């Protein structure tokens, strides 16, 4: 999982860091089981940590807004 996230380009890593918490939040709202909610939260936090480390390892980059 770490290698596949680190292979993504910087804009895709930014998308994961921004969109994943919203997706996980809506998923937690839909789930009734507290164990399933906890699993979603743990998995989301692991993916966010890996993506953050991936951005840190790739270094800075010039981001240009799409036109």
Briefly note the structural class of the backbone. Answer: mainly alpha
Percent range for helical residues? Answer: over 70%
The biggest beta sheet is recorded as:
none
Q: What is the radius of gyration computed over CA atoms, rounded to a whole number of angstroms? A: 14 Å
Strand content: under 5%
Termini distance?
32 Å
- Please give the domain count: 1
Order of helices and strands: HHH
Could you name the ranges where pLDDT drops below 50 across 5 or more consecutive residues? none
Give the number of DSSP strands. Answer: 0
Number of helices: 3
What does this structure look like?
This protein is mainly α. The protein has one domain (2-57). The chain is 76% helix and 0% strand. The chain is built from 3 helices and no strands. Helix 2 packs antiparallel against helix 3 (34-58). It is elongated, with a radius of gyration of 14 Å. The protein starts with a helix and ends in a 9-residue tail after the last helix.
Task: Give a short synopsis of this structure.
Helix content is 76%, strand content 0%. It has three helices and no strands. It starts with a helix and ends in a 9-residue tail after the last helix.
Please name the defining characteristics of this protein:
single chain, elongated
Write the layout of secondary structure elements.
Elements (H helix, E strand, L loop, with lengths): L1 H5 L3 H21 L3 H25 L9
Helix pairs in contact: 2-3
């Amino acid at each position: 999982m770490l290698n596949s996230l680190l292979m993504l380009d910087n804009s895709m890593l930014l998308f994961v860091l921004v969109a994943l918490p919203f997706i996980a939040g809506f998923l937690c709202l839909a789930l009734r089981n507290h164990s399933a909610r906890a699993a979603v939260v743990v998995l989301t936090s692991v993916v966010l940590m890996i993506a953050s480390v991936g951005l840190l390892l790739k270094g800075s980059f010039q981001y240009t807004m799409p036109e």
